[in-house]
């Protein structure tokens, strides 16, 4: 049984400046109005249907967003032209009240339109937005490794159509009904939305569905170094990319009839080279690529020329590595006081530079101690412990079936009850698999190489699998 079902919703694209520094903020996404358009750093495009025929407008779009005291403001300004000299100008301002639900890790947001203006000139006819009612509600589940959100949109636009030939005005009403879904994490963001528009004119009814998706992603790419007389043979780069796609499906009985039109825009990728690993004990190791990738990212911080891939991975180093991989925002250490600060576990030191990662992980429910008083930082991490950390960071352990289920593994009876949800979900996500005997071996110690492989697969999930689930499996089904 798969824990993810293909959704039937699609999302409007979002505008996001993607940075590639490993200390950059997580990627995020926000809808660009309700028109199903696409854009890159040079041009914006959308389709206009009120004439009864699709007209493609293109030009400049400016989007700004600001948050202040739990109020989010989004401003959109469009200056567009059509292929026959048509003109479209639009300015819309939305505001939202943001509510953080403490203890639940969730945020709800309620949008409404504050001001608007829109005018479309086609020949001597004009379409002027006379009234705009809008409501949007979203909920976001904010987990350590990634946030997931969805929302609903309803709206109504009333246009005044001034007909030059008859010198008469007529009203056109557009009813909007949409739903969206998205995710955002340090490695990428995708937002998708399906917007249904019912257009009511004196000539009859028309229906338009706009599907649009915006995706931002950071991916790692190996860059070879060809000269042989060099201190290194190659290294990794972070490639930041963004693209938007949309599809309009329309049914206009009194005009163009039925049809489908697609739009697409891509941003110019950005590239950042990373530090070069120089380990001497990995030449023929099957985990070489994963180890070098994680070292380049700073997830493994080794000073030696030897990685020792077959030695056990320690609990402390593995936990810190995973949290660095998702760029977890650690708790702020308390201000200095006269009373020495005590660690949350007796066998940890608050003076360790990575200590706050552990305290933050405990605070967010990603990891627990071996006992209430000890973390055992130097003990080898087991397969079951490693899997639990990954799934808890994703916040997906609740996607397992009701208690009492069994995993697919032959040694299911050896998997502790506290970890069975995580093992089930990690298997469904493709993060782990059994050995040739279909055994999970929950208490087997992870070597440093095995830890690198599972961490690399975890990053691939954040980089690619979520995008496929939130966009490709929905948008292109």
Question: What's this entry about, in short?
Answer:
Helices cover 17% and strands 39% of the residues.
Task: Give structural notes.
The protein is an alpha+beta fold and 477 residues long. The protein folds into 2 domains: 235 residues, Porin (Beta Barrel), CATH 2.40.160; 190 residues, no CATH class. Helix content is 17%, strand content 39%. It has 6 helices and 14 strands. Strands 1, 2, 3, 4, 5, 6, 7, 8, 9, 10, 11, 12, 13 and 14 form a 14-stranded antiparallel beta sheet that branches. Helix 1 crosses helix 6 and helix 4 crosses helix 5. The protein is elongated and about 85 Å long.
Give keywords.
Porin, 14 strands, alpha+beta, 39% strand, 2 domains, disordered N terminus, 6 helices
């Amino acid at each position: 049984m798969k824990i993810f079902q293909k959704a039937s919703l699609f999302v409007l694209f979002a505008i996001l400046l993607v940075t590639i520094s490993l200390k950059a903020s997580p990627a995020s996404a926000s809808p660009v109005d309700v028109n199903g358009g696409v854009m890159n750093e040079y041009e914006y495009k959308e389709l206009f249907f009120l004439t009864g025929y699709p007209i493609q407008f293109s030009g400049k779009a400016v989007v700004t967003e600001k948050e202040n005291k739990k109020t989010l403001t989004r401003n959109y300004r469009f200056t567009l032209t059509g292929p026959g000299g048509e003109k479209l100008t639009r300015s819309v301002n939305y505001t939202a009240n943001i509510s953080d639900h403490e203890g639940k890790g969730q945020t709800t947001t309620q949008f409404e339109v504050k001001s608007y203006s829109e005018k479309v000139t086609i020949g001597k006819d004009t379409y002027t937005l006379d009234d705009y009612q809008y409501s949007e509600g979203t909920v976001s589940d904010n987990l350590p490794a990634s946030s997931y959100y969805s929302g609903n949109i309803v709206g109504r636009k009333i246009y005044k159509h001034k007909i030059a030939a008859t010198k008469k005005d007529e009203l056109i009403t557009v009813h909007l009904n949409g739903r969206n879904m998205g995710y955002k994490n340090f490695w990428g963001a995708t937002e998708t939305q399906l917007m249904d528009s019912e257009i009511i004119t004196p000539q009859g009814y028309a229906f338009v569905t706009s599907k649009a998706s915006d995706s931002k992603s950071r991916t790692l790419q190996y860059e070879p170094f060809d000269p042989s007389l060099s201190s290194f043979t190659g290294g990794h780069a972070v490639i930041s990319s963004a693209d938007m796609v949309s599809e309009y499906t329309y049914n206009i009985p009194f005009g163009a009839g039925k049809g489908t039109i697609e739009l697409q825009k891509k941003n110019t990728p950005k590239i950042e080279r990373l530090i070069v690993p120089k380990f001497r004990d990995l030449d023929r190791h099957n985990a070489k690529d994963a180890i070098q990738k994680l070292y380049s990212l700073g997830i493994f911080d080794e000073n030696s020329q030897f990685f020792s891939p077959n030695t056990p991975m320690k609990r402390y180093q593995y936990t810190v590595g995973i949290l660095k991989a998702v760029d977890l925002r650690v708790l702020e250490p308390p201000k200095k006081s006269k009373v020495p600060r005590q660690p949350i576990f007796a066998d940890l030191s608050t003076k360790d530079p990575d200590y706050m990662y552990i305290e933050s992980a405990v605070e967010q429910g990603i990891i627990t101690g071996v006992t209430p008083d000890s973390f055992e930082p130097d003990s080898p991490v087991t397969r079951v412990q490693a899997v639990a950390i990954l799934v808890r960071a994703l916040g997906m352990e609740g996607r397992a079936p009701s208690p009492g289920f069994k995993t697919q593994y032959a040694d299911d009876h050896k998997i502790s009850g506290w970890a069975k949800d995580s093992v089930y979900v990690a298997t469904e996500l493709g993060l782990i698999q059994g050995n040739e005997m279909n055994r999970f071996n929950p208490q087997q110690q992870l070597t440093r190489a095995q830890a690198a492989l599972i961490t690399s697969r975890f990053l691939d999930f954040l980089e690619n699998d979520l995008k496929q689930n939130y966009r490709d499996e929905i948008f292109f089904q």
